[in-house]
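Predict the 3D structure for this chain.
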Amino acid sequence: MARINVNPTRMELKKLKARLKTAQRGHKLLKDKTDEMVRRFSVLVRDTKRLRDEVEEEVVRVLKQFSLARGTMSDQEIALAFSMPCVSLSVDCVTVNVLNLEIPKLHLEEQRGEERYPYSFAEVTSEADLAVASAGQVVSRLLHLAEMEKATMMLADEIEKSKRRVNALEYVMIPDIEETIRYISQKLDENERAGLTRLMKVKSMLEERS
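Done. Predicted structure below.
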């Protein structure tokens, strides 16, 4: 603890007591916020891990299906079949406020042409059809996973900052203010006792003269 360098006056004592009350109230609010962020972070980490495991399995399955399709078609046929995509994707990013933290929210917009597949069914095998359909389904889940992982990282950083603020208030600022309040109170008490002693001395001297 370190005493704050202020004049030991009643005015400063009053200011410090008000400052201490504000710091204690801020500490409680900030600690409650940190606890809530930790709770949400735990839930988010669990959900993100579950989704990541599911998406990784889906990606592996899609890649296997494309490998099967490549095994039944030549490179030239593959290149020709997928050279003209019939779907265009765009991502719109907005932010949502979560505990005063701006979390990105991603929206996938899909624009399809008249044809469902970018090729004729007579040109490719059924494995390619299945691979294309599976890839289309996994894209949105990949985007959702990216959104959740970014939110997890941002929440982890905010929790770390919030914990540092809580610790600074709890172990530095509040103890320093309390120590300074004790010092000023003791100093004022000493001055009061000294003043009372002087008054008694003066009274005694006046009584002796009279």
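The CA atoms of residues 56 and 114 lie 31 Å apart.
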